[in-house]
Design goal:
339 residues; alpha/beta; eight-stranded parallel β-sheet; two-stranded antiparallel sheet
Length: 339
């Protein structure tokens, strides 16, 4: 396993991040037994960075994913000491049928000091641990000033409940605003940013990645395969083995002739080198400046093994050039939008 430091911190994390959003406990999805097996396999392979969120789970049980991770951690064997555990705060986890992106009661979501205090204690209970290594703000809260957010985080850090703070889905200017506020008060501030970033979706390169690099944040890309679009979607469609690739971004993308043509060119280019599309998509992210490691969300051991193989993949310059031609990035800012 390859490791790197998380942003400007001294914390060493694996270059693959185990995403647990699929660990729902539901039969037919990733049930608890399978989830435990995948976490065991990831840890055995050296993956030490596990990512989750307080709202992951099912409509009937928001927080189910944290509970499943907690039941795995409490099995012992040094699991908690070996894992860098990351979770998130923002959404309402009240299990009363309220949609995840709505709140059932005032102050039960977002980033007020009241909700941060409530949410961290609830996450710690579900996770069965006394501390969270990386506590991430899941979205921007335009109604709560960073002075209040950092004051709340100071309390958690002093209590030993949280070690580092990170962001997720923040634009570049909010990363700057958060860290300048932290700096003014002598605080460490954000150490990571988790964002949508992959070969197909490269807008993060304009502002988010540069801001993260400027302030010493590790970049943690989510949806590295763009919901399967970069994981051999066309081949699986032809073989009838990729029903999941026909939903979400993949389904919408493959219905667009221009997108379909780009994906076809991508799969052909990858095949010419004897590589697998999904592994190339992950390996490409590992070549990008500022990237700590992409989040992989395996449902099966085979998917986890494929993600691990990406760590060993050396992409030739000719393929990297072709990938830039098929999926050109936006270019550096401000030139990308000003000149």
């Amino acid at each position: 396993m390859k490791y790197t430091q998380l942003g400007r911190t001294g914390l060493k994390v694996s270059r693959l991040v185990l995403g647990t959003m699929n660990f729902t406990g539901e039969a037919g999805a990733t049930d608890e037994k399978t989830s435990h097996a995948l976490m065991d396999a990831a840890l055995e392979a050296g993956v030490n960075f596990f990512d989750t969120a307080n709202i992951y789970g099912t409509d009937e049980e928001k927080g189910a994913t944290e509970r499943i991770i907690g039941s795995w951690l409490t099995r012992g064997g040094g699991r908690r000491d070996k894992v860098v555990l990351a979770t998130k705060v923002y959404g309402d986890t009240t299990n009363d049928g309220t949609p995840w992106n709505q709140t059932s009661w005032p102050n039960h979501d977002r980033l007020s000091a009241v909700n941060i205090r409530r949410a961290v204690d609830a996450s710690l209970t579900r996770l069965g641990t006394d501390h969270i290594d990386l506590y991430q703000f899941h979205h921007v809260d335009r109604d709560t000033p960073f002075d209040e957010i950092w004051q709340a985080m100071d309390v958690l850090i002093q209590q030993g409940k949280v070690l580092y703070a990170g962001s997720s889905n923040f634009p570049g200017y909010k990363i700057a605003q958060a860290n300048e506020t932290a700096r003014a008060h002598g605080r460490v501030g954000l150490v990571s940013e988790q964002c949508l970033y992959n070969l197909f979706e490269r807008r993060a390169e304009m502002e988010v990645v540069p801001a993260a690099q400027e302030y010493g944040l590790g970049v943690i890309p989510w949806s590295p395969l763009h919901q399967g679009l970069l994981g051999g979607a066309l081949r699986k469609q032809r073989e009838g083995s990729g029903s999941r690739t026909l939903t979400g971004r993949s389904g919408a993308g493959l219905a667009d002739p221009q997108v379909r043509a780009r994906v076809e060119a991508y799969e052909n280019a990858v095949a010419e080198h004897g590589f697998e599309p999904g592994e190339v998509a992950l390996a490409w992210l590992l070549t990008r400046p500022g990237v700590t490691g992409p989040i992989v969300g395996p449902r099966t051991q085979e998917q986890l093994d494929s993600a691990l193989r990406a760590l060993q993949l050396e992409l030739p310059e000719s393929l990297l050039t072709t990938l830039d031609e098929i999926f050109p990035g936006p270019g550096p800012s401000p030139e990308a939008f000003a000149w």
